[in-house]
Amino acid sequence: MTEAYDPPLTVAFLLASYTPNAPAGMERATAALAQGLRQLGHHAMVLTAAEQPELDPDVIQLNTLAASFPCDDDTLRRAIHGAGDRLHREITATFDAHGVDIAVYVDALWGLGRVAVQHRARSVLATHVIGHDEDLAVALASVEHVIAPSSTVLDQARERDYDTDGWWVIPNGLLHEHPCPDEAAREALRRRGPIRVLGRLGAEKNIPALVNEARSLERPAEVVVADAGFETVSGAQGDEWSRCKHAAAHSPWVYLRSGGISWAQVPAWLAEAAVVIVPSRRESFGLVALEAMSVGTPVVCFDIDHLPSLIGKGPEAGGVVVPRAGGEHALWKAAEDLLGDPVRYRHLSRAAYYRTRDFQPTTVAELFVKAVR
């Protein structure tokens, strides 16, 4: 049973690159938290600088931030500087017009935390990643609360000499639900289903290296990638796509596709995979892994950042965690070994589903409200 709040809160999320169906964890996690808040009876909106594909009354476009997406950190930083006080006034006026109670800056730079405005609304910085010190230090000095999706982010912050006392861990939530395949369908997937990979075109997602090691694969693998609204340097995503295509040209069992998948379709697509591989070299949370497990699909990943904690170990594990030192070939081998073991596969599939039950939008939203109210 969820807790009722009277009067309801109005929560504004700020994320410069936000668009629905963006292939990025920050956007999807923001949408899930906003959905959970609405399900609890609160109001939630998103303020963004990105042009929206369709009219949504809960998404408000900032007109003073002149930036086109995708763009890199330096380009966005210059746009914020160029907007100056006009951006502050626009954000403040929007908060006033909608009676905002809580403002969530979804990142120090991309979530405009570095320009957090002085307002009666409580201010929250969501540190999905520990970014540049020049943004983070300013943001931390300007907000009242700090949240992070995992203890991994807190560890990374402490390694950079930030004081994390008082920070709250609020995990990312599941935006869409989809039923798990029944036992017979899951067994059929184990025997004949594809291995699937889903990610954005970021170097840390490590997709070209994974595809390059698929040459000895003897089962179809489907790899879907897409551009996000942000990139490390201009053109980086295009370069990553070229590397993916080059690797796939030498891997006959790999079907590579760009353009991504809509948020609503992601769980169904992952449910129809035999195994989902998450080849990331950095992962502060691991939303694709969570979504795969939520539909009973075991995950294979490296032992990096938050992924081992998310996947689990022993009888409660929802997948297989591979030592990073083994390289990308070890990910394919772990997947194929798992698919060849029906008893282990069935156990991991069931455990994967149950590991995700605490990540419902309302559960995460309740944790959020408790942290910042």
TrEMBL record:
SUPFAM superfamilies: UDP-Glycosyltransferase/glycogen phosphorylase (SSF53756)
Glycosyl transferase family domain sequence ranges: 197-353
The keyword Transferase appears for this protein: yes
Keywords: Glycosyltransferase, Transferase
InterPro entries: Glyco_trans_1, Glyco_trans_4-like_N, Glycosyltransferase_grp1
Name of the protein: Glycosyltransferase family 4 protein
Pfam families membership: Glyco_transf_4, Glycos_transf_1
Span of domain Glycosyltransferase subfamily 4-like N-terminal: 25-174
